């Protein structure tokens, strides 16, 4: 028909019958060689960046607090090994706004064995031998009994006063409290500052707030780390349960695909329904409780996340979200009820394919292993790069000084012109930086580290997709299964992918990585423009983020299908992507009917496994069940292991179901090719399974009509 010819001409020519075609082409050549060479050069450069970072970096900079001379407090094997705490000479100087810009208090800081435990001024301590010996623990070296108080204070050797302090993230902060609504420190409301002034305890509050502005997050991280140390083995047990559940689900799908899909749908609806019921019960239980009606906006950000669970609005939000998800799933099931039958037939065939290629279920472990190596290399390199700066010292002073915040050298600062012009100034450690060629291009090395991380991670994922596609394509096109299949289809497909198509894998993953790095840059710009009032800039940035998100999804879809075509025909990336795209365009209705509905059903399977394991983890770690009260570990945040188990369960379920998804996508493309290559005659019989032929009203002509 003319219309059909015009349609095919617009979307590529359909496949012609080829009697010699028996599945994935064995006689093939290397593809996209230029990109393969570029990838190898980039990897060698990545190793060079790692070696450079490891030779320059020092992770101790993020582990130990640093004193005014750039030394690490409590570092093993150094003179400061027994001095793990950082002491501030004058914590009130931390109230300066410069602290928020430079993250460093303009006061002398030194490492001490323990924080001060009592009030004491230098003037009063000096007249008592025992008190002065105690006081000297918080002074610089070189203080002697022969020195007078004015000389000690002039040279900045000792603080003017000591206040009772408590260690917080290895730093000594005043032990602030409240008595009758009044701020106290060491149970008193007023104190002498050592230079003749009587100060109120509340004067210390601003200094403590600014000094802790950077380390509040570290406190939360430390608590989370402690929770992991207390619950890691229970988390592993939860992940093992998720793995066994996923494996059981896959095995049951192999034999009871139809029944399992409907059971899965019912259980997903029930699990989400229980989540709605539980949220309602928590919401109702908090009615009348003091403070439960506070809104999330009024509460603001809290480091103790359990506070949010004491608010009714939190449970109301959870309930609404789950209800919306439940309604969407039910509506989709109602509208797609007929198409689900076709998808079940495709899942059944995928189950048979996996049954003949059982090694495919183990392959995600290999992909996971490679991804762990990539992530670990990126993380270690990032830490070493971020800690490869040199200590920078700056001039800090109390009075007006033209050299304020200028770079200085602590070794000879006492005899420098800057000290002569500003007698009360000090040369203190400010931050880590540097002005060498290496430090100037450090941000570029960090960018290269992130980009290569995306490229390598996408390459590993692409390798898995092409390998599984080659294995399942050999199953579909085998005329007699499994006799016409390779002995080890997964290993054969992996060998072909690495030997002939490393360049193609690098090409596809490079395109995806460029889009992802652009999205990262857009997120960075969005973060920088948070306080901007330019509505047009915000709107433009939002549009760009949305467009690149859509583009990333499209490229992932295109790459996936391109890798399937490469695995079958052995052509380069661009040709394979074009062929796959036109093949899907020529069968757009079938794509919507079969492929996407199948993806939806597999997503429900992942949702079911995550829901079951997540509910079990919630009751165990929250202590809501009496049987687990004595068994569950004591935690700061019980949501930490729960969230870890839920995310881990999803990744595990995704790993197993990704094999199914790749199998379905491969069989689907082969099925479309089968429809174009063959017509069901004795010479050109369909290779699709009988169940699919019945649903699509297709039959081989040598078979009797039913």
UniProtKB/TrEMBL annotation:
Q: Which residues cross the membrane?
A: 33-54, 232-252, 259-277, 315-336, 357-380, 452-479, 500-522, 600-623, 635-657
Whether Plastid counts among this entry's keywords is: no
- Give the UniProt subcellular location, in the record's own words: Cell membrane; Mitochondrion outer membrane
Q: What is its main location?
A: membrane
Lipid biosynthesis in keyword set:
no
Catalytic activity from the UniProt record? choline(out) + n H(+)(in) = choline(in) + n H(+)(out); ethanolamine(out) + n H(+)(in) = ethanolamine(in) + n H(+)(out)
How the protein sits in the membrane? Multi-pass membrane protein
What are the record's GO terms for cellular component? mitochondrial outer membrane; plasma membrane
Q: Which Pfam families match?
A: Choline_transpo
What GO MF terms are annotated?
antiporter activity
**Keywords, A to Z?**
Antiport, Cell membrane, Glycoprotein, Membrane, Mitochondrion, Mitochondrion outer membrane, Phosphoprotein, Transmembrane, Transmembrane helix, Transport
Concerning PANTHER family, the annotation shows: CHOLINE TRANSPORTER-LIKE (SLC FAMILY 44) (PTHR12385), CHOLINE TRANSPORTER-LIKE PROTEIN 2 (PTHR12385:SF34)
The family note in this entry says: Belongs to the CTL (choline transporter-like) family.
**In UniProt terms, what function does this protein have?**
Choline transporter.
Q: What is this protein called?
A: Choline transporter-like protein
- What is the originating organism of this protein? Sphaeramia orbicularis (orbiculate cardinalfish)
- What gene, per UniProt, encodes this protein? LOC115423430
């Amino acid at each position: 028909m003319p219309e059909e010819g015009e349609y095919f001409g617009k979307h590529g020519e359909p496949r012609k019958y080829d009697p010699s075609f028996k599945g994935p082409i064995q006689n093939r050549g290397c593809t996209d060689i230029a990109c393969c060479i570029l990838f190898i050069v980039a990897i060698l450069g990545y190793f060079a960046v790692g070696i450079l970072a490891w030779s320059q970096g020092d992770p101790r900079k993020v582990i130990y607090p640093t004193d005014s001379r750039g030394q690490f407090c409590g570092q093993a094997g150094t003179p400061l090994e027994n001095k793990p705490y950082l002491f501030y000479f004058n914590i009130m100087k931390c109230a300066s706004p410069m602290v928020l810009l430079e993250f460093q208090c303009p006061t002398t800081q030194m490492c001490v064995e323990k924080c001060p435990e009592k009030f004491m001024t230098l003037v009063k301590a000096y007249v008592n031998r025992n008190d002065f010996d105690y006081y000297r623990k918080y002074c610089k070296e070189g203080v002697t009994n022969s020195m007078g108080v004015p000389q000690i204070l002039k040279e900045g050797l000792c603080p003017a006063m000591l206040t009772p302090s408590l260690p917080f993230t290895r730093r000594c902060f005043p032990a602030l409290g409240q008595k009758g609504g009044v701020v106290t420190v060491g149970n008193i409301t007023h104190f002498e500052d050592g230079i003749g002034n009587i100060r109120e305890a509340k004067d210390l509050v601003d200094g403590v707030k600014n000094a802790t502005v950077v380390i509040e997050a570290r406190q939360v991280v430390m608590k989370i780390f402690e929770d992991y140390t207390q619950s890691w083995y229970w988390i592993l047990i939860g992940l093992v349960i998720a793995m066994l559940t996923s494996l059981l689900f896959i095995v049951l799908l192999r034999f009871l695909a139809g029944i399992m899909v409907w059971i899965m749908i019912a259980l997903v609806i029930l699990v989400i329904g229980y989540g709605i019921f539980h949220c309602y019960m928590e919401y109702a239980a908090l009615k009348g409780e003091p403070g439960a009606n506070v809104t999330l906006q009024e509460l603001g950000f809290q480091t103790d996340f359990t506070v949010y669970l004491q608010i009714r609005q939190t449970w109301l939000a959870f309930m609404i979200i789950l209800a919306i998800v439940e309604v969407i799933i039910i509506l989709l099931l109602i509208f797609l009820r007929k198409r689900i039958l076709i998808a079940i037939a495709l899942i059944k065939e995928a189950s048979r394919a996996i049954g003949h290629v059982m090694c495919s279920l183990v392959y995600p472990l290999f992909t996971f292993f490679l991804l762990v190596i990539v992530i670990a290399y990126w993380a270690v390199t990032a830490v070493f790069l971020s800690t490869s700066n040199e200590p920078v010292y700056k001039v800090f002073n109390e009075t007006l000084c033209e050299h304020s915040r200028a770079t200085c050298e602590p070794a000879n600062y006492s005899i420098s012109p800057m000290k002569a012009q500003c007698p009360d100034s000090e040369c203190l450690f400010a931050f880590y930086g540097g002005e060498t060629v290496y430090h100037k291009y450090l941000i570029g090395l960090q960018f290269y580290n992130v980009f290569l991380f995306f490229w390598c991670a996408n390459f590993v994922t692409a390798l898995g997709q092409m390998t599984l596609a080659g294995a399942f394509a050999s199953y579909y096109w085998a005329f007699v299964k499994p006799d016409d299949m390779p002995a080890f289809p997964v290993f054969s497909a992996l060998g072909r992918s690495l030997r002939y198509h490393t360049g193609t894998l690098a090409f596809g993953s490079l395109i995806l990585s460029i889009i992802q790095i652009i999205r990262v840059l857009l997120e960075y710009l969005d973060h920088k423009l948070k306080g901007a009032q330019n509505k047009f800039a915000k709107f433009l940035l939002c549009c760009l983020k949305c467009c690149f998100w859509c583009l990333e999804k499209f490229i992932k879809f295109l790459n996936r299908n391109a890798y399937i075509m490469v695995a079958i025909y052995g052509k380069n990336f661009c040709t394979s992507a074009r062929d796959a795209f036109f093949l899907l365009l020529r069968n757009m209705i079938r794509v919507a009917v079969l492929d996407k509905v199948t993806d939806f059903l597999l997503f429900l399977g992942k949702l079911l496994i995550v829901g079951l394991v997540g509910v079990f983890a919630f009751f165990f770690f929250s202590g809501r069940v009496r049987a687990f009260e004595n068994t569950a570990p004591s935690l700061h945040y019980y949501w930490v292991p729960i969230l870890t188990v839920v995310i881990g369960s999803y990744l595990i379920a995704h790993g197993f179901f990704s094999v199914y998804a790749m199998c379905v996508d491969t069989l689907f493309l082969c099925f479309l090719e089968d429809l174009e290559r063959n017509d069901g005659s004795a010479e050109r019989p369909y290779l699709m399974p009988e169940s699919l032929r019945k649903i699509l009203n297709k039959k081989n002509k040598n078979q009797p009509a039913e």
